[in-house]
Design brief:
It is a single chain. The protein has helices at 130-142, 159-170, 182-191, 206-213, 227-233, 266-270, 287-299, 316-325, and strands at 4-10, 23-29, 38-47, 75-82, 92-95, 102-105, 112-113, 150-154, 174-179, 196-199, 218-223, 237-245, 274-277, 307-311, 331-335. The chain is an alpha/beta fold and 342 residues long. Strands 3, 4, 5, 6, 7, 14 and 15 form a seven-stranded mixed beta sheet that branches. The two termini are 22 Å apart. The mean pLDDT is 93.
Length: 342
């Protein structure tokens, strides 16, 4: 067993886009598990845009990270040394230790053994993890989705957006994805089979283009971007329309006073539109059932995904910044050890 490990700590609170100097690599001595505990050597660490909300001093639904703490993330790991009867050496687990090579656990919290279902293990922190489950419960519980609805998904080439769009297609809806650039839009149309893909970078009047693409209005907006997109689409919402607030990527690097407001509120009254956000852990009891359905869609090809892999814990800050720069799309992961499932 390695006697040391590395982790990425928050060195300074972020103001705008993440910078390399906002983080530091810290080397630590590996702890010894006490009775009931076990050590996990991580194989992957996730790079999530939602992490940005904890890296400034403003409040989110969970407190901001303290300086010196490990940046939060989800992981796939292998149990390296166990003194816990429920977890044996060699077990593969989905967990949430963060941007770190090693984690110590007593088995509580976000911790589960990975079932060999024929899928890559990285799927357990992707489509079968928090991103996919956010899409699933956002559409099913919050959006009250049913067949025949018109669904718009913003940031549709991201992990959450792409999964949401494909779930909506699997449930027989008309799905329009909004993304930036022809490569992303071609992927949404040609690979994922969406009914339409709108390139917001290629038009001077996005609202008019959305209206032309949705002549019969919008039943569900699954939004990952923020207030500006919500405000633009609100006038197009149908009677009893549903707006699912999944993320706000356009807000994460903005100062509070620069964030776009929502002005087109009349539709909340005239069209009885409901807007609601979600925290996926509210649905934790239903995770196994949702994961089983998502795995079925993955195995039969109804859900596809992209990953961009960075090697080494030191790559985490750069991988994080590139999410907001839009240099690539799909799930960003840092690989810390060779993937045992490949």
């Amino acid at each position: 067993m390695n006697k040391t490990y590395r982790r990425v700590a928050l060195a300074s609170y972020l103001d705008g886009l993440p910078r390399a100097e906002d983080f530091e690599i810290v080397e630590e001595t590996a702890p010894e598990p006490a009775e009931g505990e076990f050590l996990v050597r991580n194989v992957y660490a996730s790079i999530d845009p939602g992490t940005r909300s904890r890296l400034s001093q403003g409040q989110s639904y969970i407190p901001p990270l303290k300086l010196g703490e490990t940046v939060g993330a989800f992981n796939i790991g292998r149990v390296e040394a166990s003194r816990n009867d429920k977890f044996q050496d060699g077990d593969l687990v989905a967990c949430a230790f963060g941007w770190t090579e090693l984690g110590l656990s007593n088995g509580k919290g976000f911790m589960s053994k990975i079932i060999d279902n024929g899928l890559p293990i990285s799927a357990w922190i992707g489509v079968l993890g928090v991103p996919g489950l956010t899409s699933y419960f956002g559409l099913k519980r919050v959006g009250e989705i049913s067949a025949g609805k018109t669904v718009i998904v913003t940031s549709a080439a991201g992990m959450v957006g792409a999964t949401a769009a494909q779930i909506a297609k699997a449930l027989d809806c008309r799905v329009i994805g909004i993304a930036g650039g022809p490569v992303k839009c071609a992927w949404l149309k040609d690979e994922l089979g969406l009914d339409a893909a709108i390139d917001y970078k290629a038009t001077d009047d996005l609202a008019a283009l959305i209206k032309r693409t949705c002549p019969d209005g919008v039943d569900i907006l699954f939004d990952n971007v923020g207030n500006a997109s919500v405000d633009m689409i609100l006038p197009l919402m149908n009677l009893n329309g549903r707006i699912v607030i999944s993320g706000q990527i356009s807000h994460y690097n903005q100062r509070e006073g620069d964030i776009h407001g929502i002005r087109n509120t009349r539709a909340f009254i005239t069209h009885r539109v409901r807007m609601q956000g979600l925290v996926v852990f509210d649905d934790i009891r239903d995770f196994p059932e949702a994961q089983a359905e998502l795995a079925g869609w993955l195995l039969n090809g109804q859900i596809k995904y992209r990953e961009k892999i960075y090697d080494g814990i030191e790559q985490a800050p750069q991988a994080f910044r590139e999410i907001f720069e839009g240099k690539d799309f799909g799930r960003h992961l840092v690989r810390l050890l060779p993937d045992p499932s490949v």
